[in-house]
Amino acid sequence: WDCCKPSCAWPGKGHVDRPMLACSTRTGRITGDGNMRSVCDGGTSASCPSHKPLVVNSHLTLGFAAAAVSGNHGLLGDQNCAQCFQLRFVDKMHDGGVWGGSHRHLVNKSMIVQVLNIGYDVTGAHSFDIQIPGAGQGIFGSGCRGQYRGFSTGDFDCDNRYGGCHRRDGCARLPKQLQSGCRWRYDWFH
Length: 190
Fold this sequence. Notes:
Belongs to the glycosyl hydrolase 45 (cellulase K) family. By secondary structure, the chain is mostly beta strands. It is built from 2 helices and 7 strands; from the N terminus they run βββββββαα.
């Protein structure tokens, strides 16, 4: 969760009537201009706090994801913007691999994700990066600090850019609007 304007919030992405939503760093409200520059590039357009995961019940959750499109798994790029996918968590290993299978607490749960970002820079056999506040800012460390004044860069991921907060209590370092999304990682997605 780097707070950058979602790549799918630019005009012309996906087969939609209008771009995905982004929020103003000045007002916190949804922007009406898809051409506003991203907070990660010195602009005022950012991810909306409402892009955090939301629990429906003990077996279903909703959220947003970046589609990793630099692999061989059927995702194509910008045309995947705004598409929804159901992720089913199973305990099966990937074919021919030494990895895969969900944690036992996730098996038989599902998540509906809407593609909000396209990860052309992400390689590997996985398909989605779930957008979770507090789970690491990755290469863009200036966006959240630009969106939420009064916080340090490390507050948004417990000083761990790749992986984020290791414990639930680290979520208290994030702005109030993002804390429930961070706690989701430990309460539902553990």
